[in-house]
């Protein structure tokens, strides 16, 4: 697992944005299918991207999808898509035809199926699964990733691409990309910042499969961990 450690969450976010732009510059004719995560951590990165890196980003070659979504409408402050639209996508010269959101306002089981069919139709296929160019993941303090929480490990080997999961802390339903399509991605990048995440980062790096994030980190191809000094403080 390749680690990039920067001094602060801001510098970690900047390093990851530049890394993505560089990967795209290395393959100038390629369309990049990118699955984004939500939550608190990438908000800073999205804000910086919109404010500092709009001009150097090849937006026309990017296709955006979501790793997971909370089952709420886009206007809800919990919406992963809503947060990304407000901070980043709404400020970039992007065609909305290239943004494929999970419709959190729909009936969850139907939406998981609809979205899986959409991804199947848009993203190149390998081994029977979509092959995203980049899957950007976060990690919860409890070791969850996507919206696969500890205790929901069956979703790591599910035969469905997207499933309905539930946040055990508040009962909120989620739609989550499962383990096998995540492992099928060209590149899996974890963005983890803050001292609160130091234990979970240390567990991922030093222990076995202690949670869904660790399971993915130990098996995906081209796994990269972008962390700040706080998250790296127990390594
Ligand atoms: O609920 C979620 O949690 C994880 C981690 O989020 P963070 O708030 O701790 O940064 C995130 O990756 C996922 O997309 C999100 O829905």
UniProtKB/TrEMBL annotation:
Spell out the Pfam families in the cross-references: Glucosamine_iso
- A GO BP entry: pentose-phosphate shunt
Tell me which domain of life the UniProt entry assigns to the organism this sequence originates from.
Bacteria
* Domain Glucosamine/galactosamine-6-phosphate isomerase span(s) in chain numbering: 15-220
Hydrolase keyword on record? yes
Provide a Gene Ontology MF annotation, just one.
6-phosphogluconolactonase activity
Q: What is its EC number?
A: 3.1.1.31
Q: State which pathway it belongs to.
A: Carbohydrate degradation; pentose phosphate pathway; D-ribulose 5-phosphate from D-glucose 6-phosphate (oxidative stage): step 2/3
Keyword Transport appears in the UniProt entry = no
The reaction(s) catalysed by this protein are: 6-phospho-D-glucono-1,5-lactone + H2O = 6-phospho-D-gluconate + H(+)
- Which keywords belong to this entry? Hydrolase
Which family does the record claim for this protein?
Belongs to the glucosamine/galactosamine-6-phosphate isomerase family. 6-phosphogluconolactonase subfamily.
Q: Which PANTHER family match?
A: 6-PHOSPHOGLUCONOLACTONASE
Purpose: Hydrolysis of 6-phosphogluconolactone to 6-phosphogluconate.
Protein name per UniProt:
6-phosphogluconolactonase
Q: Which gene encodes it?
A: pgl
